[in-house]
Design brief:
The protein is of the alpha/beta class and 517 residues long. It folds into two domains: 202 residues, Rossmann fold, CATH 3.40.50; 283 residues, pyruvate-formate lyase- activating enzyme, CATH 3.80.30. It is 45% helix and 16% strand. It is built from 20 helices and 17 strands. It starts with a helix and ends with a helix.
């Protein structure tokens, strides 16, 4: 059939669909970037596309169910569900597959943010292909690229991307950057595994079109519950100012898929925000960057341009790093506030300089104190991400984290929000897992599934007091201190405490069984 006639048979060239995940680092619900950016690229080439966020839709539906936790565990770890949960979930997936097919798209582009999207990807692809075997499906995103980047395999030593292709659950997989391959795939119907094998350059990043959030169901985001909100009923557009990270922290896997730090011109970032505000009516923004101040030059340019063109109109938040004193001035903090910065998420991780030095965080306690106090003075709220049980962390190191929380107990929520995230998990592809684990003689505990998160049940003879059990107890101690100092929301407090206690219970049950076996 002539390709031009074939295209006319479809309502859309493609629909870009963000797949469910179970946990998100967003402090309030932000509309996912990938579908919006891909639509923006297609708009610039005259292709008709639309976007759907299945993550927010499933969250709204499953949060009403008493078996919501069962579905979360399944999506994260393929954990078995009860019969009732199984039936409800698969009925929802089948109904969603029928809806996607009915849209009459040449391609369905599924975006996987992380490994937490893999279970749903398999299920939705199964139902789509069962109901309409000829429907073309493309997979992309960090969730499907991770195995190819880290070498992780599953049954028969197959990567997930190969499993999806060989079983016919999808037609095309794009590994890593899709921006330069997308149009060719859609117009030429390219199939198989595609990898540009390179990251976007700075020039290419600056040439990307503005994301289009025009098809998102904005009302769903304002209704969603979260641990922290800048305002009530807010929906934020996600925007990217940089890719990669200026730091290479030992526990982080960002550089496995974005090995270089590249950033947009600050004026370009501001112009995108202004365009989205003026054409789509969105005035709140969440940055997807690993660090919004990774390039101080671009960050200053962006804030200066926003203050000049759209002062005190929009709001934004993003991940932020404490820099050495002098690299960020008092004027910078005032400029941030005037440009619309409302909140920053800081990877503090530990109150111990010794621990942070091993992590390669590259800031001292004095640098940290200066940042905390400077943000507070200009009215920018801050969240500290805190980690418990880093591989070199001793009890003395951990007490320095407790001391940090105590030091600022006079600054109350929401000015400071603490996120005692979890105990350290060794992620595949990180320096900590690939290099330092050997140097520290990391071993794995003999425990059954369900005890902890992936990569969290390790031990090291070089740091004997940092055991799995102690890490959980330290974590509970930190959670309680954050509550005592009003640094944590009731919802987050209850969730973190319940998770830690469940992990400790499973641990103790496993150890008792092993003792009698």
């Amino acid at each position: 059939m002539d390709k031009s006639k074939e295209k006319n048979m479809f309502e859309y060239h493609a629909a870009f669909i963000f797949l469910p995940i179970t946990k998100s680092s967003h402090l309030f619900t932000a509309m996912p970037l990938a579908p919006a950016l891909l639509k923006g690229i297609c708009d610039s080439h005259g292709l008709k596309t639309t976007t759907i966020d299945l993550d927010i839709e499933l969250k709204h539906e499953r949060q009403k169910k008493y078996f919501n936790t069962e579905i979360e565990k399944y999506l994260m770890f393929f954990h078995p569900m009860s019969e009732e949960a199984y039936d409800w979930y698969h009925n929802w997936v089948e109904k969603t597959a029928r809806r996607l097919i009915k849209m009459n798209c040449n391609w369905l582009g599924l975006s996987l943010l992380s490994y937490q999207s893999l279970a749903f990807a398999q299920d939705i692809c199964f139902w789509i292909k069962k109901l309409k075997p000829t429907q073309k499906i493309i997979l992309g995103g960090a969730g499907i690229s991770q195995d190819d980047n880290t070498g992780k395999t599953y049954k028969n030593n197959k990567k997930m991307s190969d499993i999806m292709l060989e079983t016919g659950l999808c037609d095309t997989v794009i590994i890593n950057e899709s921006e330069n391959l997308l149009i060719d795939v859609l117009l030429q119907n390219r199939k198989g595994k595609l990898d540009s094998k390179r990251q976007l350059s700075q020039a290419e990043l600056n040439q990307l079109p503005t994301p289009s959030y025009i098809d998102y169901k904005i009302d769903l985001y304002g209704q969603n519950e979260s641990n922290f909100k800048l305002e009530k009923h807010i929906a934020a557009a996600t925007i990217t100012g940089s890719k990669g990270c200026v730091r290479r922290c030992t526990f982080c896997d960002v550089f496995t898929f974005e090995p270089k730090f590249v950033f947009k011109d600050g004026r370009k970032i501001a112009d995108e925000m202004i365009e989205i505000y003026e054409t789509q009516g969105i005035k709140s923004f969440h940055f997807s960057d690993s660090l919004i101040n990774g390039s101080m030059k671009a960050f200053r340019q962006m804030n200066e341009h926003l203050v000049k063109k759209l002062p005190k109109t929009i709001s934004y938040l993003g991940e932020y790093i404490a820099r050495p004193i002098g690299q960020t001035t008092d004027e910078d903090y005032h400029l941030m506030a005037e440009a619309g910065c409302k909140h920053v998420v800081v990877g503090v991780e530990s109150g111990s300089e010794q621990v942070r030095n091993h992590m390669k965080k590259k800031f001292t306690n004095n640098d940290l104190f200066h940042m905390i106090e400077s943000l507070y003075k200009v009215g920018i709220t801050q969240q500290w991400n805190l980690m418990v049980g880093y591989v070199t962390e001793t009890r003395k190191d951990f007490e320095e984290t407790l001391n940090l929380v105590q030091r600022y107990k006079h600054i109350k929520y929401p000015n400071i929000l603490a996120n005692p995230g979890n105990i350290l998990s060794l992620l595949p592809g990180t320096p900590l897992a690939d290099t330092h684990a050997r140097q520290l003689e990391i071993e794995w505990e003999d425990v059954k599934e369900g005890v902890g998160m992936m990569g969290s049940v390790w031990k090291s003879p070089k740091n004997p007091e940092n055991t799995f059990e102690n890490r959980i107890k330290w974590w509970l101690e930190l959670i309680e201190l954050c509550k005592e100092n009003n640094f944590i929301t009731p919802q987050r407090y209850e969730n973190k405490k319940a998770m830690a206690k469940m992990m400790l219970l499973h641990w103790n049950q496993t150890k008792k069984k092993n003792a009698y076996s």
